[in-house]
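Work Package 3 (structural annotation) set out to generate three-dimensional models for the target panel prioritized at the project kickoff. During this period the team completed the workflow that converts sequence records into C-alpha cells, so that structures can be stored uniformly alongside our sequence database. As a representative example, we reproduce one entry of 573 residues exactly as it appears in the project archive.
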Amino acid sequence: MKQLMLGNKAVARGLYEAGCCVASSYPGTPSTEITEEAAKYNEIYCEWAPNEKVAMEVAFGAAMAGKRSFCGMKHVGLNVACDPLFTASYTGINAGMVIVVADDAGMHSSQNEQDSRHHAIASKIPMLEPSDSAEALAYTKLAYELSEEYDTPVILKMCTRVAHSQSIVEVGERQEYSKPYVKNISKYVMTPANAIRRHPLVEERTRKLIEYAETNEINRVEMGSTKLGIITSSTCYQYAKEVFGEDASVLKLGMINPLPVKLILDFAAKVDQLVVIEELDPIIETHCKQLGLTVTGKDVLPITGEFSQNLIAEKLGQEAKPSCHLDEQLPMRPPAMCSGCPHRGLFYTLKKNNCTVLGDIGCYTLGAAPPLNSIEMTLCMGASVSATHGFNKALGAEAEKKTVAVIGDSTFMHSGMTGLANIAYNQSNSTVIIVDNSITGMTGHQQNPTTGYNIKGDPAGKIDLEALCRAMGFDRVRIVDPYNLKECDTVLKEELAANEPSVIISRRPCVLLKYVKTNPALKVDTDKCRGCQACMRLGCPSISFRDGKAKIDNTLCVGCGVCQQLCAFGALQ
C-alpha cells in the first residue's frame, strides 16, 4: 500500500517494519516527529529521555540485550551523545542499533549549522543518507541489517528538507526480530586492555564497509550526458536532478560513510567535468581530491546555508527557474513570545532591574529580542548555569549582585543539574532561575521528567524541582508566579542581595497547553489611555499603538493581566 508521508514519519514506519522494540530520544527540531510517530505503534516501547546521551545509552542497552533499538536527536544533540557513540563503535552491538540525527542547514531552529558526517567519520560508524521519504523508510530497515551484519551502530542522517517534506512510500508488514543475550566481557567492558583488541576490528569493519559501498545499489550511477558528472547525496540529489535532468550524469550516494573509492574513480573516468554538490562541509569533495580527482565544489558553491534549485543553477551556469514574488515589500515578522507567555513578566522584571542574564536553549531564548533585550548569552543546553558560575567567579561580588541564569524546566533536566551541582560545590553566590512552564515548549509540547506524564500522556514519575534543588545543597529555593510582577520583583531583589547561592522557580504552565484556561481579552479605555506606551515595553503581540493610543487585539489576548500592572491610569480593563 502506498502512502504520502513526511520523511520523519517514514523513518518511524521503517522502525516499525524492521521490528524495533525500544526507542529513546530527546526532542529536537527537525527530528522530533520520528519518535512521536513511533510512539503510535504499541509494538515499540518509546520514551523521552532527559538528554541525548541517556537516550543513546538506553538504545545501546536494549541492543546489547538482543532487541532492535533506536535513538533520535538533532545535530547538536549528537554532540551530547558523543561519549557513548565513540565507544559503542568499539564494542559493537548484539541486535541492531540505529541512531537518527537530523541536521538543520539554514538554522531554521538551531544555534549553529553543523555537519554530522564529521561524527560518523570520527567515530568510524557507517552513515546512510536518504533523499526522500521512500528512502527514509528503506534506509531505516537497511540500517538494521547493516548494524547486525557488521556489528556496529548505524547512523541515519536526515536534514530539515527530507524530515519535513512529503513523498510517496510503500509500506510493508512488521518483521519481529530478537537475539539472545550472551555474556561477553571482552566485547562490552571497555577497559584499556579490551579496547586495544577491539580497535583493529573497527578498522577491518571499515575496510569491509568500503567494499560494500563499492557495489551496493544504495550508491548508484544514473548516466546522462557525459559532459558533466555530479556526485551528490540527500536533498542536493533532488535539486541536481531538477536543474540538470539528462544534461548530466549523477553518482547518487546513499552511504555517506565510508565512501567508496573505485566507484567514484570509475564514474569520474566517464565524464568530462566532475562537480560535487553537498550542503555545508566538503566531505565528498575532500574525499575525491584525496583520490587525485579534479572537482568543482566549494570553490563555486557556498559552505553555509541551505541549497536550492535556483542556487545550484546560478552557481553552475544554468538558467534559474522564475520564482513567484509579491510586488509589495512586506514588513518583517520576527518570532516573539506568545500572548500570555509566562516568561514575559519575568524577563520584564529582569530588564527593569538591569540584570545581566545568561540564557539557555528554549522558547524563552526569545527574551533576547526587542523590546525586552534581556538575554545576553545563549550557548548550548545547560550552559546558562555553568557560565553564570564562571562569570561570577571572574568578576566577583559586583557581578553576583546583578547576574542570573535563566533555564527552562526541560533544559534543566537535560543539562542544567550538573552546572547547579557545580555552583553548590564550588560556591559562587549565583542566582539560577528555572522557568517552569510544565512542558518542553520549543519543540512542540513534549513531556519531560518534571511534568508527571510520559510520551503517550500516561502518568509517569515526576521530579520535584524544589526538592531536587534543596537536595543539591540550596537552602534558598523560591517559587514565583511570573504573572505577578510585584512578587517577581521582590523575590529577585531578595535573592540577588542574599549572600549565598539561590534558585528561583518561575512557575506557570505554557499558555498554549490545552488544559490551560484563559481569561477574556482585555480592552483599552481610550478616555483613560494617556499614550505613555508603558504597556508596549512588554513586547506582547496582542498590544499595538495606533493613533496615539494603545490597542489590544482581542483575537490574541488571553487576559493574563500583566500589562494591567504597568498601566498607571487604569486604561486596560
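Residues 12 and 38 are 5 Å apart (CA to CA).
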